[in-house]
Amino acid sequence: MPTYHNAGAGYPNVSAQSRQGKVDGNQNHHTIPSNVTAAHSLIQNALQSMQSIQSIHTIPSIPSNMTVSNMLPHTVSPIMTTHMSPVPSPVILTPSAVSNPSTNTTAALSANTRHEVKLNAMPWFHGKISRETAERLLRPREDGLFLVRESTNFPGDYTLCVCYQGRVQHYRVKYKNNQLTIDDEVFFENLALLVEHYELDADGLCTQLTKSLPKQGKQDFCVDPKAFVEAGWVIQTHELELRECIGKGEFGDVLLGVYRGERVAVKMLKDNSEAAQRFLAEASLMTSLIHDNLVKLLGLVFNNQHMYLVTEYMSKGSLVDYLRSRGRLHVTKKDQINFAFDTCAGMAYLESRHVVHRDLAARNVLVAEDNSAKVSDFGLARDENFSLDGGKLPIKWTAPEALKQNKFSNKSDMWSFGILLWEIYSFGRVPYPRIPLADVVKCVEKGYKMEPPDGCPSEVYDIMKQIFEFMSVK
Prior knowledge:
The protein has twelve helices and 17 strands. By secondary structure, it is α+β, with helices and mostly antiparallel strands. Among the domains are: 38-72 and 318-472, Orthogonal Bundle (Transferase(Phosphotransferase), domain 1); 124-214, SHC Adaptor Protein. It has a six-stranded mixed β-sheet. Helix 1 (38-56) runs antiparallel to helix 8 (333-352). The radius of gyration is 24 Å and the shape is globular. The chain starts with 37 loop residues before the first helix and ends with a helix.
């Protein structure tokens, strides 16, 4: 039974502000700018090199018009240029938010009616700051100037801080019946809706909210669950048949399902707690990224007990498990270069959308029935130049500069791709097999490079060396 290794991730997936575009599976809408980055050029060179290697191993040649530019046929995601918070914590999922979805699911799920689900910016959310810091920031004390912060006295709740008559009033925003409220009379599904309400009417506060104090630097976003209904991504509960468990993830079990007669993979969120914040953010990103070498989102299911994220089913499981279980007797050189090429094509698409995966590894690439490989697990995906505040990192797959500076970009994704190439040609071995984990970064910084796996074509190892040498340039 194939499993979905590490099927859920511990970080949110953040989409971005909208850009005009239309999903079209047959046409290319994206043109790579002439001033491509050095990292993009390296991706381009890697794709071209692997195209040549495919020919060497008697693989049907790629059409002459299949350039890096038109290898990215499904560009619907906006370019991600806004710095974002690592956890858009104010996202609140509530059953009532999706209790009355459209009954015309068939029409809603058609390719022609689906739209990208966007995140709502919350510039006024300052996260974990103290009461004293909030009062220091709220100057000059204009009536109606406000910000929202996480509550220090009531973890999990929030505090609305509002200026009025030269002072700052602090209102506790608490959960009640899975909704947010200040006065136990008016309830909201998320912080953005709460703020919007009090911007229109004071409704019991000391004053109406008239001007927000924007947070400096990275800002937070939230997702309204209703947006998935309106965008056509909701699947009715009765349309999805759940079967056996095929894996475990950050959010809960990953189940085999049947939807419209086809097998699907179902990530299950067991409750409507804080995990829903990351779960919805991942789904919102997946609505904007569509490519043949990325795992496809089919929709979401909401009910009073659970929330499900439904994706296409990859019957042969994770690439690392596939390589280890089949080994040299069954995995051919043709298979290996195809896995490498498919992954590179998917990552080139992400790079063109200015999305950084940040956890590329063979465990996060899945293999379909036809042996095509698709990048999955966008749990760490972020906008370009995103910085991480805490959290665990896959040390052996992460570029040393990214580990030291907490900054990730398409360059660090390229480093991870180099490690993934080594995984493919070593048939799933753990990288740096003879070096203790604690010593990996030191060795790499001193210029250590892994030897090519047994049987690895010299052309492929040349790509690995180019990647590691490129990332070593200061």
